[in-house]
Every structure is written in C-alpha cells, then in structure tokens.
Amino acid sequence: MSFSANADARIYDGTSSSILTQALWITGFAAATALAARLEIPHYPVPFTLQTMLVLLAGAFLGARNGAMSQVLYMGSGILGLPVFAGGTWGVWILAGPTGGYLLAFPIAAALVGYLLRERRSLTAISLSMAAGLLTIFTVGTVHLYAVMIHDIGNAIAAGFLIFSWWDALKLGAASMIYFELAKRWPKVG
User: Which residue has the higher pLDDT, 154 or 189?
Assistant: First the structure.
C-alpha cells in the first residue's frame, strides 16, 4: 500500500490490489453502515439514523462498484438475519415496510456518488455528487413509503423527505467535509 500526498494517488489501486484488500474495505463500510443504523432517533414511520452518511462515504471512498457492493453486503446481512437495520431489526420483510425503499436505494446511491466522483475533488463537486446520492435515496424511499403505507403523495413527501431535510443537510455537510479533507491525503480508496 502506498500512501502519497499526490492528488492522483490512491490508498490502493483497485485494479492491482488484492481481492482481500477490497473485501476488507467493502466489509468495513457495510459494518459501519450497520453501526450507523443503530445510532438512531426513533421516529414514525422512518427513524432518524446516520446510515445515509455512510452510504455517501462508501461511494466516495470505495468508488461506484465497491461502494455499491458494500451496501449490498449490508442489506444482504440484514435480510439473512443479522440485526443490522434500524432498531436492531432484520429480515426480508423489512424491505416491504416503510424503510424498504430507502434501503433498496443505498447501493444505487453509493454507485452514483462513486461514479460522479471518479475524477472530481472540489468541495462543490463532492457536495453536489453526494446531494445527488441523497436525492436518489429520498426519491426511492418516499415513493416506496407512498406505495406501501401512506398512499397520499403530499403526506409521503412530508413524512419521508421533508422531515429529514435538516438532518440530512447536516449529514451531507459532514460527509462532504470528511471526504474532502481525507481525499487531500489519500484521494480515493477504489
């Protein structure tokens, strides 16, 4: 592993690194997302958590493919019975509930952020890329919430998107700054 201050350097080169190294990073971000789910403020029908911040950081640091894989691993762990979802819940039925759409959007959002940040390092580009990832999560999540529970688009937007706007603005700012600062030292994991 080469650590360099060069703006084009990476913690590891995804094409020449071992599969084990990539698997460790993917597993690490899946585990971090699980921990972020447990840091929650209960709210009905969807709790406040730190998960979306980890989804954005997974895409930024790991790139599109590995970022998405970390979130597929996170979801798969919960579907197969590990209590990794908010509230310590697990199981495939969670995907049919009010939080299912948000969870299903995690791999898509991580891939989008990773794709958009392939060569961009400015704080503006980082923030806009992560905002696109958040918008993806909230669009899919809100539509799913509308379809499975609320059945009124105005109320679904209020309960599934607007209520979280201040919280996710904070997480977006934190994720953007974390990535911006660490990318100066070790630009992109994979």
Answer: 154
